[in-house]
């Protein structure tokens, strides 16, 4: 798409194909929904905001190339996108070198800062820390780790291992499988999970392997009691693929679930149902892409341009009533204040919220303070329903 002179634009870096296509399609349509709403409000100085997108197919090199294409050839320096950490890391030097801005609407492993990235997904203190406290309180101290074999799962497991050890918990097995696991990979992993006899399984498996893993575990245990799988990333998109029977009883932590019963959440879910294609699912990461794009657009409207420095300065002033609740960017680290929620998947595939933080949590991407006592206290003696 060729831009007319001076037309405001946002570049989208989400995959339509590849291992994480299901969730990235939900993010792309979340961003597009925000752009549609911004244009209904008049765009930027009466000019519609254009959305430019490519399909990187989950390939980090293609994310980098498409970011270069948008910035250098189209002069589009405001970007929203990336899902897996190695795709973000591929784009990071591009936005830093060209002084562009990437909004990253995805949970990640923490321990990173870039002046050119706004991190819109949870850092470890906003998901791993409350989840660890919840699991130890309600399920037990023995945990198996299983993850896809790349940066995010290994770093997330490093943090979770430390959190479990704080309260005398024990990691009894740690397993990594390929991003595209074979039947043999899955069967071998499930054998190790069964032998470990843990209280809970902490999964950082992403993409198409998520549904495959949950189904393999459900098949192996059959009617017998199976340990719950707890995840930072499993969403409605993966549940739709695996089926309700395989998903039931498992646990997820995220800032947003479409089951949240507030006016802003209901309005967002209704808008998604009208706007999203039938095969695209509403997820927490669609919500993150939606409000980050909305925040970006409102900053563009306020300054009347796409100038990165002006837009970023304005973003730091914005507090948005997102579907999850209030959100804003911490200027000290470019991460966002977010609400944490822990949900259990019911027999209909719905996410039933069992606990939520009293308010938005200040981001601590370097996990400087990660004491489970604070989370356990905030959860009180609440029994699982």
Keywords:
alpha/beta, disordered C terminus, 385 residues, Rossmann fold, globular, 43% helix, 7-stranded mixed sheet, 2 domains, 5-stranded parallel sheet
Topology (elements, then pairings):
Blueprint: E1 9-13, H1 21-40, E2 50-54, H2 60-73, E3 78-81, H3 85-98, E4 101-104, E5 117-119, H4 124-138, E6 142-148, H5 151-166, E7 170-177, H6 183-196, E8 200-204, H7 208-221, E9 229-231, H8 236-242, H9 244-247, E10 251-254, H10 263-275, H11 284-303, H12 308-315, E11 320-322, E12 325-330, E13 335-337, E14 341-345, E15 351-356, H13 372-379
Parallel strand pairs: 1-2, 1-3, 3-4, 4-5, 6-7, 6-8, 8-9, 9-10
Antiparallel strand pairs: 10-14, 11-12, 12-13, 14-15
Descriptive account of the structure:
The chain is of the alpha/beta class and 385 residues long. 43% of the residues lie in helices and 18% in strands. The model is unreliable at 381-385 (pLDDT under 50). The protein has two domains: 9-122 and 260-337, Rossmann fold (3-Layer(aba) Sandwich); 124-259 and 340-379, Response regulator (Rossmann fold, 3-Layer(aba) Sandwich), CATH 3.40.50. The protein has a seven-stranded mixed β-sheet with strand order 7-6-8-9-10-14-15, sandwiched between helices. Helix 2 (60-73) runs parallel beside helix 3 (85-98) and helix 7 packs across helix 8 (236-242). It contains 13 helices and 15 strands. Helix 1 links the parallel strand 1 (9-13) and strand 2.
